[in-house]
Amino acid sequence: MKGSDNDNMPIISKKYYIFLLVLLGLLCGFGPFITDMYLPTLPSMTKIFHTNATMVQLGLTMSMFGLAVGQVIFGPISDRFGRKPVMLSTLSLFAIATVAIIFSPSITFFNICRFIQGLGGAGAIVLSRSVATDSFSGRELAKAMALIGAINGVAPVSAPVIGGLVAESIGWKGIFWILLGIGIILIICSLRFKESLPEENRLSEGLKPLIKSFTGLFKIKYFVIYVLLSGFANGVLFSYISSASFIIQDHFKYSELIFSLIFGLNAIGIGAGSALAVKFKSLEKAALVGSAIMTVGSLIQLISSIIWGKFIGYEGMMFLMVLGLGLVFSSSTTLSMNEGKRYPGSASAIFGAVGFLFGGIVSPLVGFGNILITSSVLIIICSVVCLGLSIVCIRRKQKSI
User: Fold this and answer.
1) CA distances for 251 relative to 79, 262, 362, 373, angstroms
2) DSSP annotation string for 218-249
3) Is 0.85 topped by the overall pTM?
4) Rounded to a whole number, what is the distance in angstroms from the first to the last CA of the chain?
5) Virtual CA dihedral for 61, 65, 68, 70, nearest 10 degrees?
6) Is 309 left (phi over 0), alpha (psi -120 to 50) or beta?
7) What is the pLDDT of residue 11?
8) Interval 295-316: pLDDT, tens
9) R_g over Cα of the chain
């Protein structure tokens, strides 16, 4: 079968097509598992390393910093040297850093290795989008990006749930052994991966073309708009993730098991929304509908929390909201990569780094004041901005018809 509806795209077999989609899905979901899977073990790590919670939580910050910086570095490098060598080298860096983490003698060494681990994991994330852009276009690209968008939303939600289920029996080191195993599997899969960026399409030597790729992308108005749309959607996601455990367990007094089940249910909602995006006549309309759902859902949730204060009101609107979030993730990923297809590696780097930047900004803000109200307000703000950006996008689409 053809990789796309573009005659310049390579023809690939159905078997390799399925392999490629699975590989891209695994690469895309890798980053959130690096950052979030070990979160349930943080309290025990303070005792193991004889340190305080702040130093242990710094490991999360360092990994997110590594994931953001790594995408900016490895995206353009893959535009110059190709996808496969960058994929193998970054995954190998991840594996080495993970082994070092497991045998960390101190929390300081652990945190340094977490940054390096994040750098390695960043290669996987940035390549998941650029390889998809290399290999597909049109409807096939939309389908691939729907998968990536779904995993982008589901992985950050499901990783702590999986970590929580296994943490008690295997501890924090066991979780990192699992991550190492995933990394090794990805390295083996990468050996079968066929280079998706032909030499004639790569950037020329020197620093100037790399700088040009970034400056060129920031001059593309709608690329910036689509990236910001995804960024504010990530603001919604991380406002939810960073507040949900406190709201569900502390405020509504549900157990860790119930919390995990609710988290899993909402992960399904995000995945369903991402899958529905390709059913729309245009991805711009999918983004508009998704943003409208998020805005309405978050407003009703805030009003319900103030007036009614029942869990069913919170969770009912939250599920509706994450469904809309899935629509926005899938459509914004495809639209931004389409706009930046001249420099897919750099475009993927900017896209991913902005997402982690927005997540890093909103996460600590939810803790101010009443977390139920503060998180709702942050979600409303981000949703309204998404709605405004989506309106700009749909008007452009209408003018082009």
Assistant:
1) 48, 15, 20, 12
2) HT-HHHHHHHHHHHHHHHHHHHHHHHHHIIII
3) no
4) 30
5) -130
6) left
7) 61
8) 999 999 999 888 888 899 999 9
9) 20
Query: Which amino acid does the sequence have at 220?
Result: I
pLDDT tens digits, residue range 228-242?
999 999 999 888 877
Cα-based torsion angle of the residue sequence 182, 186, 187, 192 in order, rounded to the nearest 10 degrees? 150
What pLDDT was estimated at residue 120? 93
Note the pLDDT tens digit of each residue in 115-141.
999 999 998 888 988 888 888 877 777
Residues in Cβ contact with 151 at an 8 Å cutoff, skipping those fewer than 6 apart = 25, 28, 29
Phi then psi for 342, rounded to 5 degrees?
-70, -35
Polymer length of the chain = 401
Please write the tens of the pLDDT for every residue from 63-76. Answer: 878 888 898 889 88
Closest CA to 65 of 310, 262, 353: 353
Instruction: List, as one string, the DSSP characters of 168-201.
Output: HHHHHHHHHHHHHHHHHHHHHHHHHPPP-S-GGG
CB atoms under 10 Å from CB of 267, counted, come to 21
Q: Which 3 state secondary structure label does DSSP give 383? A: helix
Closest CA relative to residue 78, chosen from 228, 217, 183, 201: 201
Amino acid in position 9: M
Q: Which amino acid is at 362?
A: V
